[in-house]
Design goal:
This protein is of the alpha+beta class and about 375 residues long. It contains twelve helices and 16 strands. The longest helix has 17 residues. The chain is globular, with a radius of gyration of 25 Å.
Length: about 375
């Protein structure tokens, strides 16, 4: 614990000499709950990190009041755990109290005035941006971006042949003439809601999805060298169309920009891709299906001389971590998209995609960039 205190305050550690104003403590709890969790340490000066300590009576009072704050001044209420720790200081042994606040599962958390707080480095800030608030609702399971309607879209934007293909994959006993391609069917499938296409409906069955959401595409670049700041490139493409189109074109981009090695193949063979095609397919599907669609940014594919990177907007949802997804744990951020793609693409939806990718490409590096709100996959290339 002394090592943590010596480092100073961070986005997950906050010092308080004493309890003080209850509303301010509630704001700290809210910020931790809406972010990645953390701990409040009482009995430590926040400016210097000096351990002042708490008396036995102060420990008991602080502990009791923290429970009251968590129950009554935070909405919805949160659950905290506390522990008293004795630490050695130059002035002798002193008591401190640690309140552990987990990342919440019912975001967004608010104070009694309806204010939403988030951690900003070692400090906290109010949340006022609508897109950021939507992301909190999304991570709390109260909003699904793929089920939201797309303004300006109508039934005329639907590619009926794609819907027909999808229905036949669900019901293998149907012919085209048996499928009633009408508004009722589109509504039942979730493609249309309130006379407009849903985002999932647009991305999977739209005639021209980027007409309404130009940024929801794939930006692919093959660079000379190893820097994203490079000004020269071998190949560059803005990949558009339905999710199925973007998946196929993304794999084609990697196929033409990565080396093919003989690897024991016949001399007349085209060879095997230097990076596992199975891994690439799983990782590109993951980027397209599980990205955060509340963020107006594109999926990026980058080929460098020494590595490739696949960057998807949005960090891992809820309490997922890189370690958890490696074990096959999954939280579906875009459930409607996932249900469509289980038939439209070679997508299983069991949370096994990452484990399958790593199994086929063991040197895959996964980076959950919380501050940058993005998820990065990095695979080195052989020199």
């Amino acid at each position: 614990m002394q090592d943590i205190i010596k480092v100073g305050e961070t986005s997950r550690v906050q010092f308080k000499q004493e309890l003080g104003n209850q509303n301010k403590i509630a704001a700290e709890m809210i910020a931790f709950s809406n972010s990645n969790g953390g701990m409040l340490i009482f009995g430590v000066l926040d400016k210097t990190g000096e351990i002042a300590g708490l008396s036995y009576e102060e420990l008991q009072k602080t502990n009791n009041e923290l429970a009251t704050i968590a129950n009554e001044l935070v909405k919805p209420l949160i659950y905290i755990t506390t522990e008293a720790v004795i630490v050695d200081t130059p002035d002798g042994k002193k008591n401190i109290l640690i309140a552990h606040i987990e990342e919440g599962i019912s975001k967004p958390y608010k104070d009694l005035n309806g204010t939403i707080w988030l951690k900003q480095g070692a400090d906290k800030r109010k949340v006022t941006d609508n897109a950021e608030i939507l992301r909190l609702f999304q991570s709390g399971g109260k909003f699904y971006a793929d089920k939201s309607v797309m303004p300006g879209t109508t039934e005329k934007d639907i590619n009926a042949s794609l819907v027909s293909e999808y229905v036949k994959k669900i019901r293998g006993d149907l012919n085209d003439s048996d499928i009633p391609l009408n508004k009722q069917l589109f509504e039942n499938l979730g493609i249309i809601k309130n006379e407009q296409l849903t985002l999932a409906g647009l991305l999977c069955f739209g005639k021209n999805p980027q007409k309404y959401e130009p940024v929801f595409c794939v930006k692919a670049v093959s660079f000379f060298g190893n820097s994203i700041g490079g000004t020269e490139y071998r190949d560059s493409a803005d990949i558009t169309g339905t999710l199925q189109d973007m998946f196929a074109e993304s794999i084609a981009f990697f196929n033409r920009n990565l080396r093919h090695v003989q690897a024991g193949q016949n001399f007349n063979s085209t060879g095997i891709l230097e990076i596992s095609k199975i891994a690439l397919e799983e990782l590109v599907q993951n980027a397209l299906l599980h990205r955060d669609y509340t963020i107006n940014s594109s999926v990026r594919l980058m080929v460098f001389d020494n590595r490739i990177e696949i960057v998807s907007p949005g960090r891992l949802p809820n309490s997922l971590s890189v370690e958890k997804i490696k074990m096959g744990n999954a939280v579906t951020r875009n459930s409607l998209l996932a249900s469509y793609c289980s038939k439209l693409m070679n997508y299983r939806g069991f949370g096994s995609g990452i484990t399958r990718a790593i199994s086929n490409q063991p040197n895959t590096e996964l980076i959950n960039d919380v501050e940058g709100e993005q998820f990065i996959v990095r695979i080195p290339r052989a020199s």
